[in-house]
Amino acid sequence: MKKIWLALLAAIIAFAAAVALPAAPASAAALTEVTGFGSNPTGLRMHLYVPDQRPANPAVLVAVHYCTGSGPAFYSGTEFKSLADQYGFIVIYPSATRSGNCFDVSSPGALTHNSTSDPAGILSMVRYVQQHYNTDVNRTFVTGASSGGMMTNVLLGDYPDVFAAGAAFMGVPFGCFAATAGDPTNPANQAGWNSTCSAGQLIKTPAAWGDLVRAAYPGYTGRRPRMQVFHGATDTTLAYPNFGEEIKQWTNVLGVSQTPVATDTPQSGWTRTRYGTNIVQAPVEGISVAGVGHSLPLSGMAKMVISFFGLDGTTTTPTTPTTPPTTTPPASGACTATVSLNSWTGGYVATVRVTAGSAALTGWTVTVALPSGSAVTNTWSATATGSSGTVSFRNAGYNGTVAAGGSTEFGFQGTGNGPTTTPACQAG
């Protein structure tokens, strides 16, 4: 009998322990697909990550993938999920469904407020999350790589009333891929590839780039989203000059100078420039990466994005500003040139701005003196004569005409050290 009671008591204790001490529940957060999220004219797919721990009114981040990618692939291949767990924001991962899985950043329907293409579907995703999760509508952000970087530019232009800031990896300016009526390479005026833009050959003035953004939402007078851009200096898929064109566009849109207020090196080979204000949430920030092609984001860059958005609680971290370059006012009928450098050990990228005087230019030649041991290895938006010592750069066919007082840019990459003296410019 005693053995029976002991066995029964053991069974009761085991049952009580099972009832009173259940196993700790596993994390419920997982990437899930959402359907029926609203207007979706191009049939995009939506995946959503909602972290277990989040504030009452969380922020929202839209993370947009590259061509051939998908929302789940971008979820798996980037650090935004782990950062969402750490800081409590929700992440939307859209997926393109057209051939090649690229987003439409070129058709007229994509480049306008209340669009009729991919941006409309992404906006529906944002509205769905805002309504279902009671998010802070003032903290909605977007980031993306390659096609997603281009879409980041498009969404900021189309919906400045929705997004507080964006971060574009390897993108191009808003409108750079625009299809135009009568284009023999795109007679249907549809979403597609724009070789001129991708090659970094579409060069505009800051005002012209800014006008494209403003035309997307005529009459809009509200606040404009801040912009952060990343680009590899040796990118040949969406060429490096697009980095400078993005900066020209968004500094113009936000009304700040194109001359950086600060330059620093967050990591070896990374050059960061800030425009307007030297704080973490500057109006515009650019990060140029030496020796890297079309392969961003790199480890640690997602955290820079989250800091730029303010999702980690960061406010300001001033850096020591560099001295802005001095310029000489353009003379009548002449031209001047200034150069800015992104340098690293053993190499550099130079961006040269050519400015017309009081008379328009119909052509120009810039002469640059390189230090001993320096050699030009790559040039864009100009034709180089020579590669070391004194090198001359002649305008390309599309940027030789410059209006009086206007400017254009070209660039070159080299080994060794970049130029240390002001380039000479000759009109004609």
TrEMBL record:
<dbReference type="InterPro" id="IPR001919">
    <property type="entry name" value="CBD2"/>
</dbReference>
<dbReference type="GO" id="GO:0005576">
    <property type="term" value="C:extracellular region"/>
</dbReference>
<keyword id="KW-0732">Signal</keyword>
<dbReference type="InterPro" id="IPR029058">
    <property type="entry name" value="AB_hydrolase_fold"/>
</dbReference>
<dbReference type="InterPro" id="IPR012291">
    <property type="entry name" value="CBM2_carb-bd_dom_sf"/>
</dbReference>
<protein>
    <submittedName>
        <fullName>Esterase, PHB depolymerase family</fullName>
    </submittedName>
</protein>
<dbReference type="GO" id="GO:0005975">
    <property type="term" value="P:carbohydrate metabolic process"/>
</dbReference>
<feature type="signal peptide">
    <location>
        <begin position="1"/>
        <end position="28"/>
    </location>
</feature>
<dbReference type="GO" id="GO:0004553">
    <property type="term" value="F:hydrolase activity, hydrolyzing O-glycosyl compounds"/>
</dbReference>
<dbReference type="Pfam" id="PF10503">
    <property type="entry name" value="Esterase_PHB"/>
</dbReference>
<dbReference type="InterPro" id="IPR010126">
    <property type="entry name" value="Esterase_phb"/>
</dbReference>
<feature type="domain" description="CBM2">
    <location>
        <begin position="328"/>
        <end position="428"/>
    </location>
</feature>
<keyword id="KW-0378">Hydrolase</keyword>
<dbReference type="GO" id="GO:0030247">
    <property type="term" value="F:polysaccharide binding"/>
</dbReference>
<dbReference type="Pfam" id="PF00553">
    <property type="entry name" value="CBM_2"/>
</dbReference>
<dbReference type="InterPro" id="IPR050955">
    <property type="entry name" value="Plant_Biomass_Hydrol_Est"/>
</dbReference>
<dbReference type="InterPro" id="IPR008965">
    <property type="entry name" value="CBM2/CBM3_carb-bd_dom_sf"/>
</dbReference>
